[in-house]
Amino acid sequence: MNAGCATVTPMAFCAALGRHFRELGLATTLLALTGLAACSDQGAGEAGASAVIATPASGAPAAAHPTPMQPNDTPTDPALAAALNTDAPHAVLALAQSSDPTQAHALAHWARAHWKSRNVDPMARVLAQLALGADLREDAVRHFSDGPLADDGTPAYTHAVALGYLVGALQSGLRATSGDEAAHRDLVLQLLRSAARGAGVAQPTAALPGPDATAGQRWVRFNIYPLLAPAQGAPSASADDLLEHAAVPVAATRLRANGEPDLEIGAGSAALGAFQRRLQAQRRASAP
Q: Is the pTM of this model over 0.70?
């Protein structure tokens, strides 16, 4: 079940965003918001999912975004920041499904700005919401493979698609900042700790979640904690790998003799393929 859309209609979402943007002094155009697959009864296969485009109050058109690899620093679009604050899962999916070329790099620009300022909390919040649903209560394994069906009735894996798009944007934004791999890994680990706090776990530990554990507690223990405290002798994961591993859900299948959980990827090949294809497409789109 897509909990983030259960009580939000496309028109209500549009109205809420419009009010938010007007408070920021922006004249906004919300293009085809009713096509946003995550909240539309038409399903996830519609190609015309919306993107949010803002123009200054003066009426001058917003400039198209260059790729994150270009040297000039394009300011983060305030309309995008507002959309992510209002409903991150819908906003990211809209960008992932948009064919508007001016929006292709918007999320990578947003990520780069936060990486450069070492402000990881907004990115961590979006990651947690896409992994656990807008209310942070959806089981990560089920949520990854869930979502509205396509027009032909087949699974569209929109949650996996949105996560792949986000991870690709986070990776591209991070690569466009200065610093070596060690510095990038440190930033990603900070993001993961922030995501854990957002999911309700102030200090991730090896303690296994009990039967009454929340979805956030399970996600942190099985997805986040192993990245923060890798097994002794395990190779050091790259910044890109850390982000990808945090997003792909894992499940504990059994306990080993040493008491550690045996973790396996909890997504089927179709959902995982949708995630990987969207991640790679976003990375290619943001290449110099």
A: yes
Amino acid at 198: G
Going from the C-alpha of 160 to that of each of 24, 141, 142, 152, 265, the distances in angstroms are 32, 10, 11, 19, 13
* Planar angle of CA 97, 131, 258, nearest 5 degrees: 145
- DSSP E strands in 113-165: the ranges are none
Task: Using CA atoms of 78, 79, 84, 90 in order, give the dihedral in degrees to the nearest 10.
Answer: -170
Q: Indicate the DSSP class of residue 208.
A: P
Contacts of 185 (CB under 8 A, 6+ apart): 236, 237, 238, 239, 242
| Cross-strand pairs, 263 | 252
Q: Which domain holds residue 243?
A: 3-285
Counting the structural domains of the chain, the total is: 1
Mean pLDDT of 3-15: 38
- Cβ 239 vs Cβ 179: under 8 Å: no
Q: Are 261 and 255 in contact (CB under 8 A)?
A: yes
Q: Which residues 6+ apart lie within 8 Å of 9 measured at CB?
A: 39
| pLDDT at residue 76 in the model | 65
Structure confidence by residue, pLDDT tens digits, 226-249:
999 998 888 889 999 999 999 999
**What DSSP letter does each residue of 266-287 carry, written as one string?**
-S-HHHHHHHHHHHHHHHHHT-
CA dihedral sign, ordered 275, 276, 282, 285: negative
**Could you tell me the two tokens for 9?**
């209609």
Looking at beta carbons, which pairs linking 6-11 to residues 24 or more positions away fall under 8 Å? 8/39, 8/87, 8/90, 9/39, 10/34, 10/36, 10/39, 10/40
